[in-house]
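Lab notes, practical 5.
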Amino acid sequence: MSKIERLLYKCCQLRGNPPELIHRTIHEFDFFITASIWGLDAETEMVSDIYKFVHNRRKPKNPKKILLFRAKCFYDWCRMLYEDDDNSILDNYYKEIAEKNLKGEWLHFL
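Output from the prediction step:
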């Protein structure tokens, strides 16, 4: 198993998904990667937050390691969202999205 696969598997566990549902985590990873690349002028705050979360970290100098770098960022993001016992961070995103009437815009990725 590669390092990226291990990180995605750990994220799957953090999300409470069994390994046979890893495609859901891969879907969320795809969303995370897209947000981290294009999210600066995002309409939703979560996409903008992902962009800032990734771009505030030191990027590898070797371009061959950028995918592993983004996978590590995604793992840290999952830990921040899903490892917290009361899920207060995630709950705040749900409330904010509901308040802005954007419910369902990104939730289908989760």
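Observations recorded by the TA: The CA atoms of residues 84 and 90 lie 9 Å apart. The chain has a mean pLDDT of 81.
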